[in-house]
Amino acid sequence: MAYRHILLAVDFSEHSERVIERAKDLAQQDRAELSVIHVVEYLPVVDSSFGPTVPLDVDLTEQMIEAARQRLDGVAERLAIPKNRRWVQVGSPKTEIIRIAKAQNADLIVLGSHGRHGIALMLGSTASSVIHHAECDVLAVRLKG
């Protein structure tokens, strides 16, 4: 089965290059469109001196989005992915990856899997959640470390 549209999910970890290369190779092999997504997890910054519920006035989310967009553009340009197939989303990585894959009719999602065990596995990983909830095929590229 040849894939027509592959969604590459990148997290910019130290092993991301392996995932990027795998998605690139599959897209070339199947002559598939390649899209790319990075999800910035929203983490409100709080001032603990007033308790855990008072957010600081400094909103780092916009800075995080801009930094992620610049890194994503670098990856996308290297892979010749047009701007209309690049997404930087804010939210839950598993939710946003699945949502974009469905909205864009991707038939394969490629992402990295850190192969966590024990308590990290019980808490759930992005790769595991995407594998179990996506409506298309998912390739979880095993990452070392």
The CA-CA distance between the termini, in Å, is 32 Å
Can you tell me the CATH class?
Alpha Beta
Strand element count: 5
Q: Give the strand order, joined by hyphens, for the main sheet.
A: 3-2-1-4-5
Could you give a short description of this structure?
The protein is an alpha/beta fold.
Written overview of the protein:
This protein has 145 residues and is of the alpha/beta class. The protein has a single domain, classed as 3-Layer(aba) Sandwich (Rossmann fold). Helix content is 39%, strand content 21%. It has five helices and five strands. The chain has a five-stranded parallel β-sheet, with helices on both faces. Helix 3 packs parallel to helix 5. The two termini are 32 Å apart. Residues 118-123 have low confidence and may be disordered.
Secondary-structure blueprint of this entry?
Blueprint: E1 5-9, H1 16-30, E2 33-40, H2 61-78, E3 86-90, H3 93-103, E4 108-113, H4 119-123, H5 126-133, E5 137-142
Give short descriptive properties of this protein.
145 residues; alpha/beta; Rossmann fold; 5-stranded parallel beta sheet; 5 helices; 5 strands; globular
